Amino acid sequence: MRKEFDSLGSVEVPKEAYYGAFTARAISNFPPSKSMHQELIRAMADVKWACAETNLDFGLLTSSMAKAIEMSCDEIKDGKLDKWIVVDPLSGGAGTAVNMNFNEIMANRATELLGGKLGEYLVHPLDHVNRSQSTNDVYPSAVKIGMIRLLRKLVDKVIDLQDSLQKKEKEFAGMLKVGRTELQDAVPITLGQEFGAWAEAIARDRWRLYKVEERIRFINLGATAIGTGINAPKNYSFKVTRKLSERVGIGLVKSENLIEATQNTDVFAEVHGLLKTLATNIIKISNDMRILSSGPHAGIGEMRLKPVQPGSSIMPGKVNPVLLEYAIQLSIKVISNDVAINFAVSSGNLELNAFLPLIQWTLYESSDLLIQTADALKRCVEGVEGMERRCLDNLNRSTTLATCFVPTLGYEKVAEIVKKADETGVSVKSILVEYGIPRKVVESVMDPPKMIALGYTGGQLKNNSRTDHQISPP
After folding, report:
1. 241 within 8 A of 222, measured Cβ to Cβ
2. Which of 26, 139, 445, 471 could form a disulfide with 95 if both were Cys (CB 3.0 to 4.6 A apart)?
3. CA nearest to 106, candidates 89, 82, 123, 94
4. Residues 6 or more apart whose Cβ sits within 8 Å of residue 456
C-alpha cells in the first residue's frame, strides 16, 4: 500500500493502483456493484483530451504535461486502463467520484510517462488534469457525447427493423385476411398491410431518435462550477468545444446560457421519452405478432414464427414466441426507467442536479436494452411465414364481410342478416341470396380484394338507391 493525502487526511491506496485518494474513499463509501459504461469511459477520455489541448493553447500546461495527459486519454479510450476505472457509476456527488477517478488515473499515468512513480504526481489530478474544469461541466458533456453515440447505434438497429418489416409488407402484400378490432372480427385487410402499419410506426421512431440528437449537442464545457466559468480563461468554452467537436466527429455547440445548462437536465427526460415511445411501439407490435401466430393449430395461426428453441420442458414439440417475449420484457424495463429519469431530472436543486449519475445510468441502460430489443424483433420478423390458407379460412368464416352492403341495404338490414348467419351457421353470402340479391351481385360486391381499397362503397350497388333493393326475409 502507499499513503496519499487529501483535504480530509491520509488514505491507503494499493501500491500498483493508478487511482488515488479520492477514488479510494469513493470505493469505501460506494462499494462498486456495476461497471462504468464503455461509452461514458470513451467520452470522458475525449473530454479530458480536449481540455488538456485547450489548456496548452492558453499556456496553462507545459507541452510535456499536455502530451502526457493526452496520451493517457488515448490509452483509457483504447481500454488499456479499464482495470482502474473502479468507481460505482451511481456514486453520490453529481458525478464527482467518476470525474476524480479519471483525473487520478490520468495524473498517475501521465506522471509515469514523464518518468515519475505512481502517487508522486508530477502531473496533479486537480491542478493539471482538471485545470479549467469542474465535474459539473465535464461530466454532463461526456454524458451527452456517449448518449449521442448510443443513439446512433440504436437508430441503425431501428433502420434494420424497419427494413425487415417493409420486406414482409411486400412479401405478404396479396395475402388477404380478416382484420380485428378489440380482438373481434373486422373488415378485410392483408397481412402485408399489417406489417406496413408496423413499419410506419417504427419509421416515426427512427425519425424522432435521429432528430433528437440535435437537442443534446449543446454542452456546457467551460461553465466550471455553476455556469459562470470561474477559474477558466475567457473564451475557453468556445475553444474547448471546438476541439472536442473535432475530436469526436460530432457537431457540438456551446450552450447559449451556461448557467441554465448547468442547472437543468430536462433534455435527458425529453430524450428518454422518445426511447419510451419506441418501447411502447415494440411492445404493441410484438403482442400483435404473438396473437396472430397463436396456436399454431388451436389459435389464430395466420402467421408462423421461425422456431428458435424448444418451448416446454414437459410438452414435446411446443415452441414459444420467445424472441417476442424477450422484446416485450426489455421494453417494459425501458418504460419503468422513464419513471426514474423523470424523478431524477425533477430532483435537481438550484445550480446543479446531484442525480445526474442516475440519469446517465438509466439513459444508457435503456439505449442498450432497445438496441438488443430492436435486433431481437428484427430476427423474429425475418423468420415469419404467412399462413395464407389459414388467413383465407378465417376471412371467409367472418360475417363482417357483409359490411360492404351497408351503403345500399342500410346498417339495420345488414345487422339482421349477420345475426341470422351467426344463429344458423349459414354463410352471409347464402343469406343475401335468400333475401333476393343475385348470387353474381353478391360475389361481385363481397370481394375482399376490392374491399381493402380506399373508396370502396359497394361495387355494383354503389350508384343504386336503397329503394331498388327492398329485400325481405324469405
Report:
1. yes
2. 139
3. 123
4. 404, 450
Q: Alpha carbon 415 to chain centroid distance? A: 45
Q: How far is CA 196 from the centre of its chain?
A: 21
Whether 238 is in a domain gets the answer no
Stretch (H or E) spanning 3? strand 2-6
Domain of residue 103, CATH code: 1.10.275.10
Query: Residue with C-alpha cell 469505501?
Result: 28
End-to-end CA distance of the chain: give it in Å, rounded.
101
Give me the pLDDT at residue 470, please.
52
Last residue of a domain, one of 131, 147, 168: 131
- The CATH number given to whatever domain includes residue 431 is 1.10.40.30
Q: What is the tens place of the pLDDT at every residue in 236-259?
A: 999 999 999 999 999 999 999 999
List, in sequence order, every residue forming a beta bridge with 151; answer none if it has no partner.
none
Contact 435, 472 (CB under 8 A): yes
What's the rounded Cα separation, in Å, for the pair 360 and 89?
9
Element spanning 51, H or E: helix 38-57
Q: Which residue has the cell 435537481?
A: 348
According to DSSP, residue 149 is labeled H
> Where would I find the beta strands (DSSP E) of 335-433?
385-386
Alpha helix positions (H), 78-134: 96-113
Containing domain of residue 17, as a range?
Answer: 2-131
What mean pLDDT comes out for the span 273-289?
Answer: 98
Rounded Cα gap, residues 51 and 95, in angstroms: 18
Is the pLDDT assigned to residue 97 strictly greater than 90?
yes
Q: Active-site residue numbers? A: 312
Q: Are residues 164 and 307 in the same domain?
A: yes
